[in-house]
Design a protein that fits this description.
Length: about 450
């Protein structure tokens, strides 16, 4: 039985629950996200404070664990301001558009095995709200819709800095979702399905982080850019945009943007766990000697622990790495991640095709390794000849060339490649310059008058 057939049989387990059980599972998914967000905010402030040798929140509740609730109450009680130049309808809808799609992706995330049903009030059901044959495409679509909230928030505010933040978010989404889609495609090739439950089932023998390490690294980088988190938090960088797309927002609207960011962190972490870290499966040392580790309610524990581990990774990045420049962000997305993800996808497809033709692992490694070495050699030769041409062109441009006058057009401009500035006159030696004393003569005219 191949993976595609297995996925079809697993999908038949969904859609049979009674209405009140579906409602309970939906409320659980919502509560899971909210509780995880409340914990993540406190955990982030605690961890960053520990990394920076500070105390952190310690006033509200035991060990400051109720700090998130205090922040939520404070935001609710703040004055809700709508700026005068804003497009009021879009201005109000933007935070809602950003928050709602963040909750929707969790509907297709498996918290436990589809074939191992649990009992809830006497009803047997799967530990997943629902599943789709194209569940991963659904997650990509939902994540893309959430970006519209940020873009519309920047545009509708009627201010310059929020507009720039919204445009940055749009460009960032386009740059990073292409590489993210290529990383997903590698997983689809190995699992044979886009269903989340089938992808987890395909990792029974080996997690995809072992088989597809490059895809995992690419997805980790893109999920940080997708959630606008440091060091890729350019849409809301306070250094040059005051606060970015949410500068003109306050009270509950600002809270919705903050909630959407943290819910997206939980969602992308859950997707990463599902695609690369075995989903709800117990780690190898535990699953090897405990047969019941992947049955009953235990898979929920392993899933939550893996998600918290990735959330700690988000926090660790924020506490250690500085914000990159916007040009560096775009260069990483278009010149590094997209080419690497496309080449890696071609390699994965080649390996899968050779495996389907019953080639041995040694032969596949030889063919793929030979192709990689050939491409590297061709790239090296091309770089050598390109450097020689650039040096020769620079040398020819430097011959018989008049000095560049930066003030020729009436205002200073930087030199273009191949242009050279005129040498700057050196200052007089230190001994020829006179020290200016208070009350003394400091110019030649002063000495002449004296």
């Amino acid at each position: 039985m191949n993976t595609v057939q297995l996925a079809a049989e697993d999908l038949s387990l969904f859609g049979r629950d009674v209405w009140w059980l579906v409602l309970i599972k939906a409320v659980f998914c919502f509560a899971f996200l909210m509780v995880t967000v409340l914990f993540s905010i406190v955990w982030e402030r605690k961890v960053v404070a520990w990394m920076q040798l500070r105390i952190g929140p310690n006033r509200h509740g035991p060990w400051g664990m109720l700090q998130s609730l205090a922040d939520g109450v404070k935001l609710m009680l703040k004055e809700d301001i709508i700026v005068k130049r804003a497009d009021k309808v879009v201005y109000v809808l933007a935070p809602i558009i950003a928050a709602i799609p963040a909750f929707m992706a969790i509907a297709v995330i498996p918290f436990g095995p589809a074939g191992n049903e649990v009992s809830i009030f006497g009803q047997r059901t799967t530990m997943q709200l629902t599943d789709l044959p194209i569940a991963m495409l659904y997650i990509l679509a939902v994540a893309s819709v959430g970006i519209y909230g940020i873009v519309l928030a920047g545009w509708s505010s009627g201010s310059t800095y929020p507009l720039l933040g919204g445009l940055r978010s749009c460009a960032q989404m386009i740059s990073y979702e292409i590489a993210m889609g290529a990383a997903f495609a590698s997983v689809f090739l190995y699992s044979g399905s886009m269903s989340t439950s089938a992808i987890v089932e395909a990792q029974q023998d080996r997690w995809f982080i072992v088989l597809l390490p490059v895809s995992f690294i690419i997805y980790v980088v893109t999920m940080v850019g997708e959630t606008n988190r440091a060091p890729f938090d350019m849409p809301e960088s306070e250094g040059d945009l005051v606060g970015g797309f949410n500068t003109e927002y306050s009270s509950i609207k600002f809270a919705l943007f903050m909630l959407a960011e943290y819910v997206n962190m939980v969602t992308v972490s859950a997707v990463s766990v599902t695609l690369f870290l075995g989903g709800w499966r117990a780690p190898y040392p535990i699953s090897s000697f405990w047969e019941g580790a992947n049955h009953g309610w235990w898979p929920l524990l392993w899933f939550v622990l893996k998600v918290q581990l990735l959330l700690f990774f988000f926090i660790w990045l924020r506490g250690t790495l500085p914000r990159v420049r916007y040009d560096q962000l775009m260069k990483l997305g278009w010149k590094v991640l997209i080419p690497v993800s496309v080449v890696w996808l071609m390699m994965v497809a080649t390996v899968r095709a050779l495996r389907n033709e019953a080639y041995e692992i040694a032969d596949i490694a030889l063919y793929v390794g030979g192709a990689v070495v050939a491409i590297l050699l061709l790239s090296f030769v091309a770089d050598v000849f390109r450097d020689k041409r650039e040096k020769a062109a620079a040398a020819d441009a430097g011959k018989d060339t008049a000095p560049f006058d930066p003030l020729a057009g009436g205002f200073p401009v930087p030199p273009k490649p191949g242009q050279h500035l005129a040498p700057v006159p050196r200052r007089r030696p230190r001994g020829e310059r006179e020290l200016i004393a208070s009350g003394g003569a400091n110019t030649d005219s002063d000495r002449e008058e004296a």
